[in-house]
Amino acid sequence: MTDDTTERAHAVSERIGPGSVSATRIAPRRYEGLNERGATVAIGGAEMEGEHFTPGELLKLALAGCVGLSTDRVAARRLGDDFAMTIWAHGRSDEESNRYRQIAEEVIVDLSGLEPHDRDTLVQIMAKAIDRACTVGRSVEGAIDVDTAIDGTDVP
User: Which residues pair with 40 in a beta bridge?
Assistant: First the structure.
């Protein structure tokens, strides 16, 4: 931490329960996010230097992580437990309305070892898993257009 950072404890709330998270101010325009398992994340404004996420980046990261967790088991059943997958969430907020209107999710996974029919089937199963199990995506549905591509295939 820099010299201008003041360490502060996360204040306790009577409402803390499963799924609760906190963000505590540690310096001007700098916060530390904390979950009930003790994991932390640095949060700050886009103009700030140093290693941190902006709130918008955390929103996109939540979408990407949710897609990964939603598709992980179905993909592993067909690709094996050691398959590689990276999920990107692309998009910038609209400056005029100061909100995200569209985010594009890109699932990078090598499905070239599958027969074409098996590849198409897995893409559709993964798309259904995202639609059914991605709580974050379902929560922003209607407020933000979220488009998803799996291994280069756009999915509805």
Answer: 34
Q: The pTM is what?
A: 0.89
Within 10 Å of residue 129's Cβ, how many Cβ atoms?
A: 18
Look-up: residue for tokens 């499905």? 111
- Helix or strand holding residue 155 (H, E): strand 153-155
Distance CA 92, CA 57 (A): 9
Task: Find, among 119, 112, 110, 67, the residue nearest to 88 by Cα.
Answer: 67
The set of long-range contacts for 53-62, using a CB threshold of 8 Å and a minimum separation of 24, is 56/93, 56/100, 58/33, 59/100, 59/140, 60/89, 60/90, 60/91, 60/103, 61/89, 62/136
| 138-142-143 Cα angle (round to 5) | 100
What are the pLDDT digits (tens) for 90-130? 999 999 999 999 999 999 999 999 999 999 999 999 999 99
Round to whole Å and give the CA distance between 51 and 32. 12
Q: Which structure tokens are listed for 82?
A: 């050691």
Q: Is 17 helix (H, G, I), strand (E, B) or coil?
A: coil
